[in-house]
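Example 4.3 (complexes with small molecules)
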Amino acid sequence: EAIIEFSGVEVKYGEVEALRGIDLKIPGEKVTVIIGPSGCGKSTMIRTVNRMVEPTRGTVRYQGQDVKTFDKIELRRQMGYAIQNVGLIPHLTVEENILLVPRLLGWPEDRKKKRAKELLDLIGLDAGKYANKYPSELSGGEAQRVGVARALGADPPVLLFDEPFGAVDPLKREELQDEFIRIQRRLRKTVLFITHDLSEAIRLADYMVIMKDGVVVQADAPERLLKEP
Ligand code: ADP
Ligand code: ADP
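Answer. The structure with adenosine-5'-diphosphate bound is encoded below.
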């Protein structure tokens, strides 16, 4: 039931060894949280999954197949991606931003309209009020929600979340975590979620991966990891 598998994955950026041999199985339909200090290779690791980064050595498999055998548009359909600084496109409206992947996939107009409304409902933003706003008119928390909605755009089975709530203040962050938990209960995605916040990791993780200096130090259910002396 591993849906994503890393085998001997190494990544070098010139002289920098960002990943030094990752062997890891990611369970399907669960939230796997990757935690570790800044610079330990977390972002690099999840970016090898959707081929934003190509391994220098080793293989990443998705559903048993080397991700290299998928084209990049197919990977975008399969894997939503959200990052800390949201990266909404400033000259596109909220609706246009969340429909980027459906547009890329050539969905017809009526299906896109319907999907935009569903996504805004899901993240708790009123479609009438928000669909035509521009990113600059959103609060930080609203923008993060829209970033999550964009990742969910074409209903991908996998979500790659790189500290999606990292830039939000602590109270708002808990609200977003609650909402994420609520959404995940409904949608049952395979989620790879990066954080460097231990309390966030404990709240969200079904499975927890601890990284340091480009390797996985430990990987287990959080209750088992935290029980150890
Ligand atoms: P984390 O997400 O844990 O902060 P990263 O995967 O972003 O770690 O980075 C791992 C290491 O690789 C760091 O030393 C970082 O400086 C380096 N690195 C990341 N991206 C690049 C890049 N595009 N070019 C060169 N070095 C990079
Ligand atoms: P850094 O964190 O190293 O500063 P970013 O995470 O901001 O860099 O980089 C964003 C990158 O992600 C850009 O190259 C952008 O084209 C790409 N990107 C944005 N959304 C997606 C997506 N859904 N799938 C794949 N790549 C994406």
